[in-house]
Amino acid sequence: MSTDSGFYSIIDYTVDASDTQRELVEAFAEIQERWVRFYPGYRSARFHVSTDGTRVYN
Fold first, then answer.
1. Is the pLDDT confidence value at 41 over 90?
2. N or C terminus: fewer CB in 10 A for the chain?
């Protein structure tokens, strides 16, 4: 079992439609690639989308 006591964050974004859902994920992916991944200690980010097109989880 891991003894890692690192920081974890789960954020739930509510959006109006699947088009907005896709745009939000694409925007976050670009931010990850251009900026966030270079921060010391950064490990990863995952984005999950609801099947009804109204939520994005990060």
1. no
2. N
